[in-house]
Design brief:
This protein has about 290 residues and is of the alpha/beta class. The chain is built from 13 helices and 7 strands. It has a single domain, classed as Vaccinia Virus protein VP39 (Rossmann fold), CATH 3.40.50. It has a 7-stranded mixed beta sheet with strand order 3-2-1-4-5-7-6, sandwiched between helices. The structure holds S-adenosylmethionine (SAM).
């Protein structure tokens, strides 16, 4: 199975320096800069799903570890603690996120790379990816490619938001299409790359041991502060749109969206705002030899 997959989904082996340059050259990469402080403004809510995912990863066979889209490295450090002494590479395309990840000493190898072209130098026992793959298209190629990175019995562990149809995202697209900024923002509105649980089952079942573990959880995030949903979205989904606007236009767009969000997510009597947030979790163990 592995051999067949390898020829169907070749894993490029470009040297790391070439990956680094390619990442920097990617169109829009600078415009897509991440801000660790904004992202971690709601750190408990954002990081918990990654720990919920990690809690379901069972025993691993011998081999190195990899995380795709490690962000500020919080889950990577937990992974390194759970399986100490293994070679561990954590990649991310954001130098800002990696700088924060590397600020704390550890044996983890932090690598700036684009996960769509990066491959580990040798097959790994774990590919872990939390809240990242919703930024990447063509999952029909990506998931088999990630399975092909694994040693026999190795584990793929993925969590992705599945909330493109949530009011927050519907209203974001609505506000983007409804102002003088529409011509600039419309091309940035991506179709939803995240499929249904059944889609991932069908895609992974032929490649995985029995016992594929796929589930969804809707968290009820309890947010504090003024326009809390807008603040939440500034750290993730809104970034590409806000980065495309400047000055008063950016402020006008945010105001238009804030008004919509306030109606959809009214503040409770205690001042908190509730944000229901659906996420899909996928655990697949690569077939043994
Ligand atoms: C929402 S953050 C999640 C970070 C971390 N996994 C966590 O749970 O805190 C998404 C991360 O994915 C990274 N990312 C997005 N697209 C990527 C790509 N094509 N290759 C590598 N990293 C990517 C971003 O730079 C960012 O750090």
């Amino acid at each position: 199975m592995c051999v067949k997959l390898e020829s169907a989904f070749p894993v490029p082996q470009a040297p790391e320096w070439a990956m680094k340059i390619a990442v920097r050259r990617r169109t829009g990469q600078t415009a897509m800069a991440w801000d660790p402080a904004t992202y971690l403004r709601f750190s408990d809510e954002r990081l918990r799903p990654g720990f919920d995912l990690l809690a379901r990863v069972g025993e691993l066979p011998t081999g190195p570890l990899a995380e795709l889209g490690c962000g500020t490295g919080v889950h990577a450090r937990a992974i390194a603690e759970r399986w100490p002494g293994r070679a561990f590479t954590a990649i991310d395309s954001s130098p800002e996120m990696l700088k924060q990840a590397a600020a704390m000493p550890s044996s983890i190898r932090w690598v700036e790379a684009d996960l769509t072209s990066w491959a580990p130098p040798e097959r790994v026992a774990l590919v872990f990816s939390n809240a990242v793959l919703q930024w990447v298209d063509r999952h029909e190629e990506l998931f088999p490619r990630m399975m092909d990175m694994l040693v026999p019995g190795g584990m793929l562990a993925v969590q992705m938001p599945r909330n493109f149809d949530a009011p927050s995202h519907v209203l974001m697209r609505d506000a983007a299409r409804a102002g003088p900024w529409a011509a600039r923002l419309k091309p940035l509105l991506r179709p939803d790359p995240v499929g249904s649980p059944e889609t991932y089952y069908d895609r992974l079942a032929p490649l995985a041991e029995d016992g594929l573990d796929i589930w969804e959880t809707e968290y009820l995030h309890v947010l504090s502060g003024e326009d809390a949903v807008l603040t939440w979205m500034r750290g993730t989904a809104l970034r590409p749109l806000l980065n495309a606007l400047e000055g008063s236009e950016r402020a006008d767009f945010e105001r238009a969206l804030a008004e919509r969000l306030r109606r959809a997510y009214p503040r409770r009597a205690d001042g908190h705002t509730l944000l229901p947030f659906r996420r899909i979790f996928i655990l697949a163990r690569a077939k043994g030899t």
